[in-house]
Amino acid sequence: MSVVLVVNSGSSSMKYQLTDVEAGEPLASGLIERIGQAEGRATHTVRHPSSPGSDAADDTFRVDVAVPDHDAAFAHMLDAFAEHGPSLDDHPPVAVGHRVVQGGARFFEPTVVTDRVKRDIEELEVLAPLHNPANLAGIVAAERAFPDVPHVAVFDTAFHQTLPPAAYTYAIDRELAAEHRVRRYGFHGTSHRFVSRAAAEFLGRPVDELRMIVLHLGNGASACAVSGGRSVETSMGMTPLEGLVMGTRSGDIDPAVLLHLQRVAGLDTDATDRLLNSRSGILGLGGHADMRDLVQASESGDDAATLALEVYAHRIRSYVGAYAAQLGRVDAIVFTAGVGENASIVREWSLAGLEGFGVEVDPERNRRRGSDARRISTDASKVAVLVVPTNEELEIARQALAVVDA
Ligand SMILES: Nc1ncnc2c1ncn2[C@@H]1O[C@H](COP(=O)(O)OP(=O)(O)O)[C@@H](O)[C@H]1O
Ligand SMILES: CC(=O)OP(=O)(O)O
Ligand SMILES: [Mg+2]
After folding, report:
1. pLDDT lower than 70: segments of the chain
2. Is 103's C-beta closer than 6 angstroms to any atom of ligand 2?
3. Nearest atom of ligand 2 to the alpha carbon of 101
4. Where are the domains of the chain?
5. Keyword Transferase on this protein (predicted)?
6. CATH class of 3-155
7. CA of 337 to the centre of ligand 3 (A)
């Protein structure tokens, strides 16, 4: 058994998963929230792999606990494994895989963490101020907790290294852009990679024959045009702010709006940053960052919530059209992540009216719930519309193991 611990450190949370890579099954997972705040909360779930004939439920343990920093989060995680299992002595990780959001133009592949790699991740903080500092803090804390195993950084940007220059170049002064590394990098690459391969498997066709549009709709959201298994266009840019409407992020906006607000509403740089990253998206429009709450508000007649949903879907439809043009042909449109896998209304509204382009969602299939990959288009639809659950942790574990085994 090859067990890998996967860590996804955010600025105020840490997610972890202990995974048996060969079985493709998590043994345990957890989430430590509100790191650095007075009241935190930790959840630890012990998974019981479902064997034929048995339907064992997972065990989840929740505690309210103040967690001052990432070191404390790791200490808490180790306690949770000791108390609730599975025992790390019986399942020692052979590697720790870390999600790192921004790898710039430097990291193309999963990379064993060294002092040099840590310095590079730190140096890339200017290009991802919300994400990379937390990712690095998680790596440093994990090295302290697991000093004897290799640590592997897996970058959100790596899958998008195949973008052609025409897709990643912003039309601004090229010398200024080069000096400050201003270009589009793209994110959620681990998910787009995993999901595009899983979709090909579901369709029973080699990924290198397929052209597809993957819609990763979670808290952050991005679209990716995948041709022959390679990312050729994606909606996030230099940072994870560009593109689709998200939980709290605006996505695309005329940059002159910022200039205008700075002039007439006195917004400074930090206030502008907070507006676009934390107070916009469906939260800014409809009062809810969580899609479940937004859908519920809309269903109970809240017009602002309904408009937020319409804007969210309208933006997705625009990207689907644009990416169809870039790809020249679309074999599949694939929904994934929390919203994409669960919110049938978002899938329905996003693809409404595309029948003329061979995209026909079957309303009944779309409404049906499920946790496996499934087709939601009609049998007659020229383009297959799929829901494919993402599993970034398994993909990170696989990539970390491959590096360590190599
Ligand atoms: N049953 C559901 N219906 C609608 N939205 C859902 C459902 N379950 C989860 N979501 C939404 O998925 C989003 C979180 O997605 P997720 O992929 O877990 O995000 P992240 O990993 O980026 O934190 C939230 O907006 C949440 O409301
Ligand atoms: C890059 C990014 O947006 O990540 P997340 O969706 O986890 O916020
Ligand atoms: Mg996610």
Report:
1. 50-56
2. no
3. 1
4. 3-155, 205-387
5. yes
6. alpha beta
7. 6
